[in-house]
Amino acid sequence: MARRKYRIGVDVGGTFTDLVVVNEETGSICTLKVPSSPSDPSEAVTRATWLAQSELNVSLEDVTQFTHATTIASNTILEGSGARTALLTTEGFRDILEIQRHKRYELFNLSYRKLAPLVPRRLCLGIPERIGAQGQIVSALDEGALRNALSFMAEEKIESVAICFLFSFLNDKHERRALEMARELLPGCYITISSEVFPQYREYERASTTVVNAYLGPRVSSYLERMIQELKAAGLRVPLHLMQSNGGIIRAEDAKRVPYRIVESGPAAGVIAAAFLGRVIGREKLIAFDMGGTTAKAGLIEEAQPRQTVGHEVGGGINLSRLLQGGGYYIGAATVDLAEVSAGGGSIAWIDGGFVKVGPQSAGAHPGPVCYGFGGEKVTVTDANVILGRIPADFFLGGKMRLDVARARAGVEEQLALPLGLSIEEACAGVIEVANANMLKMLRIVSVEKGYDPREFSFIAFGGAGPAHAVSIAEDLGIGEVIIPPTPGLLSALGLLVADVQFDFRQTHVCSAEDVDLRLIQNLYDELERNGHKALEEHGTAQDDITIVRRADMRYVGQAYEISVSIPSGPLTEKAREMSLEAFHRSHERIYGRAERRSRVELVNLCVTAVGKIRPPELRPLSHGIGSGAAARKRSRPVFFKEMGYIDCPCYERSALDGGARIAGPAIIEAFDSTTVIPPAWSLRCDQLGNLFLTPKG
């Protein structure tokens, strides 16, 4: 009898760690949810993996794919717990990390201070050498000075070295030589050169990306090596894969070399899963809304593909937009374009000047919300939902965890209701309204402020808390269809199993887009594409499964920043040039409200994404037949709705819903991983795959 084959995805969140198992023979999907272990995320991953073997009867020897989304890289930056790092740069440029971009990110905050660089100035060392703006050697590398700098680093017990010389993206000879000498004089030291990780112009951005990679390298490598060994000991026979910030997956061995690419590992997975599900159900225009225990995230999906951006910041606070840089550490990695705000189920509610605020502090996994009974004392969004009956106290995690409503009520009364002169219910409704308002700002940024009308999109909500808040937020955006996928609390983990292998390659080449010799551009693209094919072949991807996607960063002459546009595949012709220019003009008009078609356009960066297609799992239809939903009906309970107060609200068990079932609101749909709230003015339809489609009545 042939062995069954499984794919496993494990997503580490701030509150829970989710595991999804797909049976490749039957298409069945099994899930697990365990509390996260913030001090060492690998503990929760290992615990979930052992539970998969004992409770789901999955042998790791039968696993064909194991993919992990981790917060280890972002947490290392936020906690300041990375390697002791030094920077080698061109003489005269040692202050590049201090200067950044001369921006003041909070204009009216007199006490504002920039984040301290990851490398202090005394460990930023300038080396005499110079590559010119055309890639020519202006001054030879001073190997004597370099040797002295490396000796100083040895005395300082440096763990990691970032090397970033001027114009090395055009000529990396000096960086390569510095790399050789560093490996010779600093054995065991983690070394990163800018011409490998971010061969692109703009000196600060390239230096920052290189430093971040060096800063992360030792800790991320140690974490991944430990996990690889633990999984091997448990019986895993296939390589461990990681989700990248760009939504593709990469082998753990490769991630150890370029850890800067996995900083947004977790958030990307949910949007990738949403895009996959959209293709399955025929929705190509989606706004993905992921509300977990600590943060809420949003991304826009157009033509069934998530929007991407090159470059983002981390460490400067919660990012409301990748375009609104907030003074964090710049990372030049292709990233799923997300907005993020601290409004999760565990976000703490508090009073400031007589007004309710929510976040940014979170109760996290430990001690968690007051109702968990784990020692949490600060009331949270989850406590408010439980008190108002929106989350079942007796069916949390499928009944495995009972919530303490009395404790939550006492906390809300003491911390919010009495100080504000409100009832407990009014205070809880206020908490939810403030949290929704915070998330609404985030959703407007990924849609309205980027030139998209949200009314033209469907709203797909997931994460443990997303389905409870989705309809209220969609109403405010004018969206008429909300989609709740099967197992929404674990959708991000499923995204790990539908993501393709993906590598990004970029090269700066500034020139006139109208006049450049297309044969030169063709040759540059050909070289980038050869690199893409090589990377995928080394990964073991078959030629038939390789797809190459071209893009280019373009701008009007005189502009400071670029817009990324698609470039046709195949030979570059005059027609391809015209198509690319028109795509740029249209994008500029959508984003900025105008296009200057008579102005000259510059080509800045050439970009290639090499994609190795992975066969996605086939989603199984519901085993039960078409029905009214009556079989899923449970008891009723009082649920508070702002418009009408408490209503005796029918509750349904989601796992028992039939395909084709229709339910009129108000109603509560209870599941192991999340709770869906249907307000009185909305109704629900369940399709054959178990997706819930919520629409206004009539």
What's the helix and strand layout?
Layout: E1 6-12, E2 16-23, E3 29-35, H1 41-55, E4 63-69, H2 72-79, E5 85-90, H3 96-99, E6 124-127, E7 130-131, E8 137-139, H4 143-155, E9 160-164, H5 173-185, E10 190-193, H6 194-197, H7 203-234, E11 240-243, E12 249-251, H8 252-257, H9 265-281, E13 286-291, E14 296-302, E15 305-306, E16 308-314, E17 329-336, E18 338-341, E19 347-352, E20 355-362, H10 381-387, H11 405-420, H12 424-446, E21 458-462, H13 466-477, E22 482-484, H14 491-498, E23 501-512, H15 518-539, E24 546-556, E25 563-567, H16 574-592, E26 601-612, E27 633-641, E28 645-653, E29 662-664, E30 667-670, E31 675-678, E32 682-686, E33 692-696
Parallel strand pairs: 1-4, 4-11, 5-6, 5-9, 9-10, 13-21, 21-22, 28-30
Antiparallel strand pairs: 1-2, 2-3, 7-8, 11-12, 13-14, 14-15, 14-18, 16-17, 19-20, 22-33, 23-26, 24-25, 24-26, 27-28, 29-32, 30-31, 32-33
Helix pairs in contact: 1-7, 2-7, 4-5, 9-14, 10-11, 10-12, 11-12, 12-13
